Amino acid sequence: MAKSRPVFICQNCGAVASRWQGRCESCGDWNTIVEESDPGPTAIRTTRGRPFELEGLAGSDKPAARIVTGIDEFDRVTGGGFVAGSVLLLGGEPGIGKSTLLIQACAALARRGARVIYISGEEAVAQVRLRAARLSLADAPVELASATQVEDILATCANGERAALIVIDSIQTMHTEIAPAAPGTVTQVRASAQALLRYAKTSGSTIILVGHVTKDGQVAGPRVVEHMVDAVLSFEGDAAHHFRMLRASKNRFGATGEIGVFEMTGLGLAEVANPSAIFLAGRDASAPGAAVFAGMEGQRPMLIEIQALVAPTSLGTPRRAVVGFDQNRLSMILAVLEAHGGLKLGMHDVYLNVAGGMRADEPAGDLAAAAALVSSLTGAVLPADQAFFGEIGLSGAVRPVIHAGMRLREAQKLGFHQAVLAQGQQIGADERRAGLALRPCADVAQLVATIAQSAPRAKGGG
User: Lon-protease-like: where is this region (predicted)?
Assistant: First the structure.
């Protein structure tokens, strides 16, 4: 029998090294390499496999049945509810509200008559009960346990009626006898996830794995876990805001990029049915440097405010600070405004912020960001009922974007009367008859000239 030999595995990315070293050569993190035991090469099986039947692409299979929790924002992100036998990975920073969200989802599903099991590896049963009592959910028939041994958990879940939903909080605390390593290590996380995945596929129970996140916001542990599961959800938020966003970065049974918006209240997480109205509430429409962006989060249109402040600097190198917007796209927009818009921004500090703790990641936000920058530089106040969307190219041209109809309908629903968009943007007949005034924009030079006309005075630039 071959002797076991030590291996050194990075606990952040799962890379294997032949010896210990302070810095992982794969991900670059320090002090993440841990020694683990390797059982050595296994004996080669000489038994012959059994052939199985192959099928064609055409068939009469019905769509997978969905398990609806009743929390609309949660069901939206999962694609209309949980699929039986699927495994989901939910990540988020400590204290963001992952356990609160899952307790509410478990209670909502249990009250609909389904068997729900909540396994906590980090908290005692009494702590989970206290949270449920604080959220007025103590009467929900959710089955609780505090355990970390995967084999014991699976044996308990298999005893009795099949569970519709099993929550494992968290996967980093689980331990299986199959892997000879300490809990929380890459080997243990991978082996525990594989055992839970096999149980979900054979039993038909939906399993949600809660995962810790690293300092850069990525789900901790080996990347293979994200590839194993059917959906990867991230629960995001800012300690300075009450809003929380649930995003789907991977979903085998639905669209990716979907977002669910919640508000943290004294009674837990409350759904936000109309996020656009919430994020635009209280904005100062009479101040320069603010533009409303008609964006898309998955299949949901959403209006958010992009704020800019352009101020003269006394430093040799002007500052560029950005929150909620891509730093590289801001640099590109500033360069295009200088090269093709005639603005002089080299001696100005530039600050760009997306209000409400949101993020504007899609290129369609270029036009709104440029409008906010020009408005702040010139002092011109943009119309309060005007929305922007469009991508800016390096030539200065404004390019069309997708889902224009959905963006315009969302803007009209919230009382906007004007929309600035690319000149070549394709608009459906229904949107043209809706009464929303469309302002085509060919390039950034036209954008700068239009905004500068309403400026009370020039603070700098062209």
Answer: 349-462
Binding-site annotation: residue ranges = 92-99
Split into its structural domains, the chain has a count of: 3
Give the residue numbers of the binding site for ATP.
Answer: 92-99
Looking at 54-68, 207-221, 431-445, which range is the least confident one?
A: 207-221
β-bridge partners, 214: none
Instruction: Determine the distance from the C-alpha atom of residue 350 to the mean position of all C-alpha atoms in its chain, rounded to a whole number.
Output: 27
222 and 100 in a common domain: yes
pLDDT tens digits for range 275-320: 888 888 878 888 999 999 999 988 889 999 999 999 999 888 899 9
Angle between helices 366-378 and 444-453 (to 10 degrees): 40
pLDDT at 44 over 50: no
Pure H helices in 231-294? 275-280
**Does one domain contain both 163 and 93?**
yes
Q: What is the DSSP letter of 121?
A: S
Give residue for tokens 């038994």: 47
Indicate if 239 and 290 belong to the same structural domain.
no
Query: b or e along 259-273 (b: 16 or more beta carbons within 10 Å of the residue's beta carbon)?
Result: bbbbebeeebbeebe
Which of 222, 242, 273 is the last residue in one of the domains? Answer: 273
* pLDDT confidence tier of residue 462, bands split at 50, 70 and 90: very low
On whether both 295 and 228 belong to a single domain, the answer is: no
Looking at the structure, do residues 257 and 370 belong to the same domain, yes or no?
A: no
